[in-house]
Design brief:
The protein is mainly β and 187 residues long. Helices cover 7% and strands 47% of the residues. It folds into two domains: 101 residues, RimM (Elongation Factor Tu (Ef-tu), domain 3), CATH 2.40.30; 66 residues, Roll (SH3 type barrels), CATH 2.30.30.240. The strands form two sheets. Strands 2-3-6-5-4-7 form a six-stranded antiparallel β-barrel. It is elongated and about 60 Å long. The relative contact order is 0.17.
Amino acid sequence: MLNGLEPAELPADAIEVGRIADAWGIKGWFKVLPYSAHPEALFSSSHWFLLPTERGAQTFTGVARLAVKEVKEHSDTIVASAHGVDGRTEAEALRGARIFVSRSNFPAAATDEYYWVDLIGLSVINRQDEPLGCVKELLSTGPQTVLVIEYEQDGKSCERMIPFVAAYVDDVDLKERRIRVDWQTDY
């Protein structure tokens, strides 16, 4: 196992939040490519769980736990340092590693804000209690986020898109795993 990494098991609530892009500087720092425009989970967790790159040479196997020292924004990227990763060579060995964080380490979302990962799989119904499908994914279109809803019609898998804005979304109930919208089945 590489310096700074210890064997671990992936937590049951682990969410993939980014990957390590490359070494940064000569003191063991590395660049991180987050999967979110707002990567709070990377900043709020003192331990990351890593899986080796899926392409290229693998410098470790299995799940590894990395004790994070510091994470900061630098220009248009995020850089981090970790205990036991003290030089460029050790940081380069982490290149391509996938970063996971336990969902329990995510900061609490503000009122009427949701993590995308919490919305995926929720059923969507309209004001008339007609089922519209389930959230397959979310798309960021710049000014707004769009729910991609998967449903079946005449034996075929179909998709509909609903803007995730207050004008169309009446309620998100994470406990009931349901989103109520002002949308019709024929839109």
